[in-house]
Amino acid sequence: MPAFLDFTAIEIATASFLREAVIGFRDYARQSLRNVYPAVANLEPAVAEELDFFVRARGDVMWSCELGPGDAVVSAKLLGELDPAQRSTFDAALEVGAITAPELAARFTDQRIGPTAWNNRLSALATKGLLVERKQGKTKSFSPLLEIA
Q1: Neighbours of 41 (CB within 10 A)
Q2: Which residues are 77's β-sheet partners?
Q3: 36: Cβ contacts below 8 Å, ≥ 6 apart
Q4: Cα gap 105→109, rounded to integer Å
Q5: Does pTM top 0.85 for this prediction?
Q6: For the segment 10-63, what is each residue's pLDDT rounded down to a tens digit?
Q7: DSSP per-residue codes, 28-69
Q8: Residue 119: its H or E element
């Protein structure tokens, strides 16, 4: 379940606040609250710029979105940047919607990456809160928390 950290009318946020409150909560939730996936919402441009700069500097990434009526996600994007391996894995999950590591290994046989390596990439993206991890028998299925606008 997404947990939207709503920044409506917040005009300024320091890097230390973003590190301790936003990233700290995201990391805590992903380690301790297995079904909670934090995302920031309704960021003012200055706050979005500060958070984007902060997550890029630490090689991290986080969901950002705008919320419409009834907390419906109107648009979503990633703040920060994924490394090329994570980006290709994330893009595959975006394209398919829900995918498992064995499915990725079968789909990208030309890359000669086994299911274990694909699972490690998918799990890393779930740890960042980008993908939702669901148990599916003996394997895990991963799907994007939000859709890219």
Answers
A1: 20
A2: 64
A3: 1, 3, 29, 30
A4: 6
A5: yes
A6: 999 999 999 999 999 999 999 999 889 999 999 999 999 999 999 999 999 999
A7: HHHHH-TT-EEEEES--HHHHHHHHHHHHHTT-EEEEEEE-G
A8: helix 115-127
